[in-house]
Amino acid sequence: MHSMMKASVAALALGVASTSAFADGHALSGDLRIVSDMSNPAPRAVMEGLVADFGEMHPDLNIELTIVDREAWKTQIRNALTADAPDVVNWYAANRMGPYVEAGLFEDVSDMYEDGSLPGLDAVKGAMTLDGKQWGVPYTFYQWGIYYREDIFNELGLEEPTTMEEEIANCQVILDSGRKCYAIGTKFLWTAGGWFDYMNMRTNGFDFHMELARGEVEWTDPRVVETFENWAQLIDMGAFIDDHQSYSWQEALKFMTDGDATAYLIGNFAVAPMRDAGLDDSQIDFYQFPTIADVPQGEDAPTDTFHIPAQASNKDNARAFLSFVASADVQTEINSGDALGQLPINADSGVDADEFLEQGFDMLSNNAQGGVAQFFDRDFPAEMASVGMEGLQEFMVFPENRDDILARLEEARQRIYQ
Amino acid sequence: MTAPAVPDTHPPVKRSWYKENEIAVTPWLFLLPGILFFALYVIIPIFQSFWISFHQWDGLGEKTWVGLGNYERLLGGDRKFEVSFWNNLKWLVLYLLAIPMGLFISLFLNQTVRGIRLYKSLFFFPFVISQVVVGLVFSWFYLPGDQGLLNNVVGVFGLGPYNILGSPDSATYGIIAAGLWPQTAYCMILYLTGLNAVDPEQVEAARLDGAKGHKMLWYVIIPQLKPATFIAFVVTIIGALRSFDFIAVMTNGGPFGSTRVLSFYMFEESLSEFGFRMGYGAAIAVVLFFIMLGFITYFLWSMYQDEKGAR
């Protein structure tokens, strides 16, 4: 495998040397070992394309790419970072970096943000910052919001709501027509985290949500209770599909494509499967989660990242690769609709002419004054996230257990944030 | 002891140490590789788990000594632990149903009719397929609404629909039922071989004495099946403690953690995506270890008693 890689890189080098020879000025040499979790078909092609392009720019560089299963990587990364660490790895932004930053396993790349090798990344710098330093480079992010069946909204004469009152009025019409308002699958818990993020950010604002994530507010606080009361309004009116605790998010998508549910609070990654299921763009549309209280709107926009392990052996090459990935042109290319189909993290990049990407980009640039959160399971520490999401799922099935659930979460908070 | 009359003019050849101790040493030499690997991969990790369970540790950084802190939290009212523990008990008790069910099927199949081999292999089939596949098939069978076969069947009788795996009250029982399917097949095959060894003369004698039906079964057949029952009991208890695969595939511990068992909880705490609380996970492992040790001691003791009785 290794020698095959070498051979193909060498062949590439031969082919390229005559044409674009060393346009870069300082061609790299040596090795670069990348371990990537971009294992789904489209991301995989993107990652392989990135390596091929980078190899073309640096013909003397021997790049070794290993792609591992995305779910498996979540537990494998620990071993990868400690034993025979590669030079570049994939991970996630914000608190999910915490354990590796604390254990000194991620390289501090603050220098890249300071010396100008990452132009256009000021807006996303915050998500990569822990302890005042930056620990990696993002490569893509995507918006969350309400994806809905435009054709059913038209049929029922509904408009995109902007406030919770309108949302509830819409939902009543939808329920009366014999449909459910929201598809959701909470078998793997995290989808419930999305609903809580938005309910809490709209009820109490982004800053309060982050205080809760940092463990500075009690879960039994009346403001948190209010969030749950607002949420319970929707649950009590039967807005969510039945038995959602038995479905994964993909399985629940069927309710929306069949027209049994009209909307889905989910990330932009759900658009591709919706299209695959036969819905065209005249049937699906997107709107920002409606407002509840008069607070600046915060949004969830999870960011995926590249990092350099602290024990990597080719850090200079790795830094060059990171700035290559984050550069404006590469960002435009890999996030386009026929590649990742997500949003570029570089402010100078273009957004693909895609209905959802354009709306998402506009929303996050102009209408997220509150701030941009990562996601429940990335903003909250791991243990709090797992206890929390379990409680959120229980709340969505048995809203009457609210006080018991909150007491349990508060108990967990006191233990976890010591 | 008397000295030899004639002095020994040929003192024995000095033999090597190995030759002198050959009988005592050789078995150990043969055992050595096994002992070494068993110690390395089983015995030492057990003690390491004990050691880790006294610490707080994320698997990466420094361990922090917390003494019995993990155990105090675990046994002092951790709800997840209590749920897991009771689920383990449910598994242990209900899984034993596989034994009478297996016995019943083996009695039913223990006859000579055309094609009986085919029927036997069909009944044994669920044990051959992977537990993951069984779990997946059952989770489809249980699907809520009108999607699953179960709800379609009970719907004919005007019942349901039920969401077996979605309700915290029924989910564990639903998984146990799925587990019983292959386990019953296993017990069946054990009893089928056992039935081959039943002494026909004793059956004949019992028949002359007028025993038939369930009296014949209870007083003549089942006592002769005792070895098979013992093995079935052992494998069923072990199977009940190995319920991890079914839970992971069918509910992933949910809904809201109501189907966890101790092994699943241990995995979640120490090795899952949001885990890496190695100390706490090790503490659960230690508790599970002692529960299993109880069973193993009982088995060893009863085997020892049996052998003593046979002598």
Task: Kindly describe this structure.
The complex is a heterodimer of chains A (418) and B (311). With 418 residues, chain A is of the alpha/beta class. Chain A folds into two domains: 2-139 and 303-349, Periplasmic binding protein-like II (D-Maltodextrin-Binding Protein, domain 2); 144-300 and 360-416, Periplasmic binding protein-like II (D-Maltodextrin-Binding Protein, domain 2, 3-Layer(aba) Sandwich). Chain A contains 18 helices and 13 strands. Chain A has helices at residues 2-17, 41-57, 70-82, 98-102, 110-114, 150-156, 164-176, 190-204, 206-213, 222-236, 249-257, 271-276, 315-326, 328-334, 355-366, 376-379, 382-397, 402-416, and strands spanning 30-36, 61-67, 88-92, 129-130, 133-134, 137-141, 144-149, 180-182, 261-267, 284-287, 298-300, 303-307, 371-373. A five-stranded mixed beta sheet of chain A has the order 2-1-3-12-6. In chain A, strands 8-9-7-10 form a four-stranded mixed beta sheet. In chain A, strands 4-5 form a two-stranded antiparallel sheet. In chain A, helix 1 (2-17) crosses helix 2 (41-57). Chain A is globular, with a radius of gyration of 23 Å. Chain A starts with a helix and ends with a helix. With 311 residues, chain B is mainly alpha-helical. Chain B folds into two domains: 17-52, no CATH class; 78-263 and 282-310, MetI-like fold, CATH 1.10.3720.10. Chain B contains 15 helices and two strands. In chain B, strands 1-2 form a two-stranded antiparallel sheet. In chain B, a hairpin with a 7-residue loop joins strand 1 and strand 2. Chain B is flat, with a radius of gyration of 27 Å. The two termini of chain B are 38 Å apart. The mean pLDDT of chain B is 88. Chains A and B meet through helix 3, helix 4 and helix 17 of A and loops of B.
